[in-house]
Amino acid sequence: MRKNAAEDHELMRALIREDSGALERIIEKWERPLFSFAFRYTQNEFVTRDIVQETFVRIFTKRDSYDFSYPLASWIFTIAANLCKNRARWQKRHPEVSLDTGLSSGDGGEEASLLEVVPAEASLPAEDIEKEEDLDLLKRAVMSLPHDLRTAVLLHHYQDLSYKEIAEVVGCSARGVETRLYRARKILRQRVQASVERDESSQKKKVRFETRTLNESLGQLSCSP
Amino acid sequence: MRKFEDQEVDKLFDRWKDDFEPDPGLTARVRSALGQPRGRERDEKSLAIWFGNAFSRPGLAAGFAAVFVLVGMGLSQLLSSSGFGGGAQDMNLSYRLSIDPLYRLQAMAGADEFANQPIQPAQHSPNDAPVLLAGLGWLQGELDLSEPQYEQVTALHGDYEMAFDELFGELLESHRAYRAFDKQRMNSDVIDYFQLYELLQTQKDLSEKSARLTEELLLKVEQIIEPEQRTRYRELLDQVYPGFSPSEGSKTDA
């Protein structure tokens, strides 16, 4: 849908002329893609809604500076990505004890949520639980990526932007996007793998401990008169 | 040991849904932040210009005047019977949603388990989906703020905005954690009282923090405005926090 450059440019022209309903049409078309990007970048729905709103405010206030030789998607996602980055920077400078970021797993950046301590609302089959855990690992790994890698990988996977369009957002060449995507995927794979290995290792230790305790208890029982 | 390859990462990406729901108040908030009237009001404005041009012709003017009287009489009856004119109340409500994270949580998520509320908000339930106040043009009009005052008040609210948003996020998570706990408790024979205590303690702390931040902001606004504006400001506050008056003294930054 967004590939239609002529339609995008017509929308922007209408917005610049302040045609009635132009802003509404832009919002209707771009709310979902912006939400999708900002939500996965921040992983916080409330912050996402705030960023989406501010993006549209900036699209309107900066509409005269839009360069029609560039794709609209690049321009809009550049605004959104900068807002996401500012927000992340602000949160880094103002760390608060949040229920979202309470327990550090101790490997730099990957954090477990206190909410995970609260049991799930419904019990899931073991396979589904494992899948959910893997997805959580991926989300945490994405959160730990630097801004340009995170932006590139999310735009590439979910927004179907070309390397050239992503390059405009990230501020590099198309070749640079390729490199960033390669690096991002490598980091994600490694971090998910490391977390899985850590989990499996602690699981094995737990089973060993439980078996030993059980054996000891059985031993005591058999010795008692 | 499981091995993660690129395809597995792709599969995980595909399973990561964003649970998008269109935000019904988005356009209104964007327009409000831009200081623009909403679509309907904009149309009214352009209509006014058109009528203004028409009135420059005497013949048309007389015809329009007659139509206006008739339509106006009908409309006034219609509006008074339908209880129109809650605009000021809507703005008060939006203001309260913007400066009171706990109230925002209650209005948006229906969280009724937060019992500890040092500031008691007025009781009324919004008919529409809650919309945060995106600009303070409304307050400038209500208090007749000068340009420097308006800038100061806007900057002050801006300073607190991020803190309110953060706190709202924490309140929301606490509310969800409580709900999850409550649901689990219903299906279990054992109650983890330690966990319950921690949840309630967190809620209490967050409620108090919310009230403290709101009170701080109100007090700082009062320090910027003139005494006669303060009277009007307190009238507005009284509609959302009956009997509330900021206590001098708390001056912690957001």
Walkthrough of the structure:
- The complex is a heterodimer of chains A (225) and B (254).
- The longest helix of chain A is centred in the last third of the chain and has 50 residues.
- In chain A, a hairpin with a 6-residue loop joins strand 1 and strand 2.
- Chain A has a two-stranded antiparallel sheet.
- Chain A has two domains: 95 residues, Orthogonal Bundle (Rna Polymerase Sigma Factor, Chain: A); 99 residues, Arc Repressor Mutant, subunit A (Orthogonal Bundle), CATH 1.10.10.
- Chain A has 225 residues and is mainly alpha-helical.
- In chain A, 71% of the residues lie in helices and 2% in strands.
- In chain A, helix 3 crosses helix 4.
- Chain A is elongated, with a radius of gyration of 23 Å.
- The two termini of chain B are 48 Å apart.
- Chain B has 254 residues and is an all-alpha fold.
- Helix content of chain B is 68%, strand content 0%.
- The longest helix of chain B has 40 residues.
- Chain B has two domains: 56 residues, no CATH class; 154 residues, no CATH class.
- The chains are: A mainly alpha (225), B mainly alpha (254).
- Chains A and B meet through helix 2, helix 3, helix 5 and helix 8 of A and helix 1, helix 2, helix 3 and helix 8 of B.
- Chain A: It comes from Pelagicoccus mobilis.
- Chain A: This is RNA polymerase sigma factor.
- Chain A: InterPro entries: RNA_pol_sigma-70-like, RNA_pol_sigma-70_dom, RNA_pol_sigma70_r2, RNA_pol_sigma70_r4_t2, RNA_pol_sigma_r2, RNA_pol_sigma_r3/r4-like, WH-like_DNA-bd_sf.
Oligomer: heterodimer
CATH class of the largest domain in chain A equals Mainly Alpha
Please state the average pLDDT score of chain A.
Answer: 81
Largest interface: A-B, 53 and 47 residues
Q: Which helices and strands, and how do they pair?
A:
The complex is a heterodimer of chains A (225) and B (254).
Chain A: H1 5-16, H2 22-42, H3 45-61, H4 72-93, E1 103-104, E2 111-112, H5 126-143, H6 147-158, H7 163-170, H8 174-223
Antiparallel strand pairs in A: 1-2
Chain B: H1 6-15, H2 26-33, H3 39-54, H4 58-81, H5 87-99, H6 101-109, H7 137-143, H8 147-186, H9 193-224, H10 227-240
